[in-house]
Amino acid sequence: xxxxxxxxxxxxxxxxxxxxxxxxxxxxxxxxxxxxxxxxxxxxxxxxxxxxxxxxxxxxxxxxxxxxxxxxxxxxxxxxxxxxxxxxxxxxxxxxxxxxxxxxxxxxxxxxxxxxxxxxxxxxxxxxxxxxxxxxxxxxxxxxxxxxxxxxxxxxxxxxxxxxxxxxxxxxxxxxxxxxxxxxxxxxxxxxxxxxxxxxxxxxxxxxxxxxxxxxxxxxxxxxxxxxxxxxxxxxxxxxxxxxxxxxxxxxxxxxxxxxxxxxxxxxxxxxxxxxxxxxxxxxxxxxxxxxxxxxxxxxxxxxxxxxxxxxxxxxxxxxxxxxxxxxxxxxxxxxxxxxxxxxxxxxxxxxxxxxxxxxxxxxxxxxxxxxxxxxxxxxxxxxxxxxxxxxxxxxxxxxxxxxxxxxxxxxxxxxxxxxxxxxxxxxxxxxxxxxxxxxxxxxxxxxxxxxxxxxxxxxxxxxxxxxxxxxxxxxxxxxx
Length: 481
Ligand SMILES: [Zn+2]
Known about the structure:
There is one protein chain. By secondary structure, this protein is of the alpha+beta class. The protein has 4 domains: 123 residues, no CATH class; 82 residues, Roll (Nuclear Transport Factor 2, Chain: A), CATH 3.10.450.350; 124 residues, Nuclear Transport Factor 2, Chain: A (Roll), CATH 3.10.450; 111 residues, Glucose Permease (Domain IIA) (Distorted Sandwich). It is built from 9 helices and 21 strands. Helix 1 crosses helix 4 and helix 7 crosses helix 8. The longest helix is centred in the first third of the chain and has 27 residues. The relative contact order is 0.08. It binds zinc ion (ZN). Zinc ion (ZN) binds next to loops. The site of zinc ion has 5 residues, from loops.
């Protein structure tokens, strides 16, 4: 009985020793100055494959200022801790010298002690058997290609990831400060996570030998409403800032109400405004996502207001504030060659390849028209999406136009519904000339041909009661503050 116990004890001690040494070696590896959290070895193998654990790890990562998630690591990976564990491991190791079967036993050494080189070589072998995680914080001027090269990741993996990203194009808009989490296993990239915000991550996971699949993780978090009341002095933007609104929010309000009031000419000192903003929180941290719920401006004797109801803005009387969308970006004479299909799979590999848009069979050079008012947010060339445009249509919607031959607008340009923005083409990877058109609602692709988009110009009769109730709730929130 006692010998079994002894064996068990030896195994446990050996495991502790190896883990400690392993962590020590990893912490001492030289890393590029851009790799913030260095290489982390996870004690629990494959936990990174579980999106639930991953998002929990992400939250604790960000909360504790990019420290590794404590619950996923056997001990904190910091240089002092690891160095200490290497030192303290040596006396423990001498207990193992009685076991000639142990891989740590060095028969050639006098007195049968453990050699450091034996420990190091076993640690190196073990390191290969565990997934390795690298957190990379995106810097200004970074490109995905350069990041892959710097981390010594293969071009094949990069192209496989770009191929699946064609369905979301999330990696086309990486911004400084966002984090990429790479997971390598046996020298191969198995997983990449783009942390866009606390509430939004895109995960690319290797699936067999054929490539990657992706998954978007969006957390609902908690939306907290904030009320701001102010008086106009000099400019609206300045007064809004004084009241506590951000510049982005002030600009959004000005753009939302631009058809109702000229903010530079019509506003007078002494005019008042009230705004309700909902901000998203995960725990007590803001995610950066926000939404203007209601605005009311008293401009001399008249009132101008906008209330968010079912994803669109209406005035006090229930008339639409925003100009409506049209369904189709091309003339109605062209047929749809492939419909929106979130469950599409690749015919050969069987990998999930959602069709996040609607394809129109159009010959090269066909005029493409904006489906709604907005601002051009991207004009880019993608290996698979080809030349494409993204338009930000207010706070809720985005539209994308892929495989173009010519772009007729510039990034940052304000455009109107029905404006000719591009000519169709056959760029990127296609099986023939066509336009791929996408509509995104709050960051998610929806079927542009059937989605509930602001096409109506007023609240319908049967919705009047619900709209009136929403209005009185907004007014009550202002009264409270
Ligand atoms: Zn398509």
